[in-house]
Amino acid sequence: MKSILLLLLMFPMVLLGQIPEIKQDSTHIEYMIIEGDSIPREAIGLEEVILLNKLEFNSKEDRIRYYILRRKTIKVYPYAKLASERLTTLNERLISLDSRRKKKSYAKKIQKYIENEFSAELKKLTRTEGQILIKLIHRQTGKTTFELIKELRNGWRAFWFNTTASLFDISLKREFDPELIKEDFLIEDILQRNFQNGILKEQKPAMDIDFFELTNKWLKEDKNLKPREIKS
Hints:
This protein has eight helices and five strands; from the N terminus they run αββββαααααααβ. By secondary structure, it is mostly helical.
């Protein structure tokens, strides 16, 4: 399993007061009227703020499982984020190289750097942390770890790694699907809350995720979840 976890960050080596009134002038620039002054909307750098429902669980066991999942998700998310960043950087660099030999040489250098920098930390991950990481890599890159290894190595090698991983209850083909899988929705809930409180630095995912729609869906369908009432 340890060799599989190392691949999780090595795979990119070959993959390349009131609601303001809005007016428009002849140049179609939107203005906000604030206390009689016209201010271009783009001049006000307001960040989007998402108001999240507070979840409440019907059992102590479900609540404890959520907190355990929260701890593990916060731990492994930075690795998935890094993998996506390395993939983007590598692709940009490889495009600028003019020969196959230079591209191969550069990829090997990056692979060695990542292995030396992160191998010790990745070896410390538990089975469940490894599975969450695989899901988050799919969330951030849009590809499963199996697909990425297949492009990095070949189809047979990807099959072999996936078969080995299955012995440790880790599927390299696992996708991140918060619409159909409750655990994945809870992972997304954990991410959104920790993006807001600054514990995690947000990176745009490779897939479209409407968190409000997801929340509404799961609150309606899962009797073990409910929004926490806010007492006045």
